[in-house]
Amino acid sequence: MECCGHETFFDYRHVYLNFTNIEVTLAGNRTAKTCPATLGPGFAAGTTDGPGAFGFQQGDTKINEFWKRIRDFLQKPSDYQVACQKPKPVLLSTGEMFFPYAWAPAIVPIQILRIGKLIILSVPGEFTTMSGRRLRESVKQTLIRNGNGQFDNDTRIIIAGLTNTYSQYIATPEEYKQQRYEGASTLYGPHTLSAYIQEFNKLAVSLAKGSKTVKGPSPPDLSDLQLKLLPDPSGDSPPPGVKFGDMKHDVSVPKSGFFHKGDTPIAVFWSPNPRYDLLTEGTYAVVEMLQGKRWIPAYDDDDFSLIFKWDLDNIASAYGSASLEWEVPDSASNGVYRFRHFGSFKRTTGSVTEYFTGASSAFAVS
Question: Annotated binding residue at 126?
Answer without folding.
Answer: yes
